[in-house]
Amino acid sequence: MRCGLSARSAFLFFLACATTVVHGQAGVELTELPVPYYSGSANPNNTSVSLWGNRALVRSDTGPAYLFERQTADTWIKVDELVPSSLAGCYSVSLSCDRALVSTLLPEAAYLFERQSNGAWVEVATLTANDGPDATFGRAVSLSGGRALVGSVDSNPDPAIGLGSAYVFERQSSGDWIEVGKLPGTTGPGNDFFGRSVSLSCNRALVGDNNAASVFERQSGGAWVEVATLVEVSSLGAFGFSVSLSGDRALVGAPDNNPTSAAYVFERQPLGAWDEVAKLVATNVAGFDLFGWSVSLSGGRALVGDPDYIGPGIAYMFERQLGAWVEVATLMASDVNTSGFGNSVSLSGARALVGPGFSEYAYLFARSGCCGRVYAP
Predict the structure, then answer these.
(1) Fewest CB atoms within 10 Å of the CB: 81, 82, 242, 297?
(2) pTM for this one?
């Protein structure tokens, strides 16, 4: 069954933690139940939810990351809790098929989990930087097949420069995961926080800072080379604060806490250049918002979060139509107690997962009449 988002209309899913499954008809909002999602972190992170096909991964700063799976057309249940061997609270998460990547900042590491034949998820590797510990390793993570990308905003040898880096890991035939590349920040002045946002798509990597986003490609010999620097000179926001990569397209967020906030779409041209093709802005900007705080791209759809929109927050869905990018839906939580909705977003096909910064829920949206709504209390 095809799932999508209708204009100005979407359904809300509550993902919580237990084994009971409550069924509901499409369009019927179910009772809210708590989940240990955020307990009020001072600096909420914009890569704390991940959606891949029929699976959803939700970070919790109380310990594990919670994994949910779609069972039937209208049932989503929690199937596992991914607990890093360090027992530290999770920071960033990413899903790709039967693998999950979860980072912690204390200690500074990223942990690979794989789904076993019996359905259990088992930790199979711990990823750390070859050049030593760094307190921000794991600030952002991205997983694509047998590759992992981990951002570190303070990995430069000279702390005063603070350019940061991103580290590429690959799964070997033996099952081991090894570091195969370090992508350095070289595009801007010091303290740009290069590595604060990362995205991986097959043989390409996108790494953001506060002024630019860099595209890297894997060469035939295995080396990773920077092939483009994405910039927007008219942007007044933190261009590169959030990034997402999907094939030959890139989406870069530039939240500015004012009406100039935006997100930008870039496309790779036949000769290899990356050109800006669209500037995405909200149609109902309500003053000093954070549109672009989080972004996610999936084919011809883009999802942009604004956790500061009139308090509760909001997320916007855009679609590419006849070459133009058009806003087709605004996603909002019906829970009036929600705060920071849109702090993190993830898009997979025609489903959208939105995580608030200070709330007990993550929210999953799909087109009317498609998937129903279910939570697992």
Answers:
(1) 81
(2) 0.85
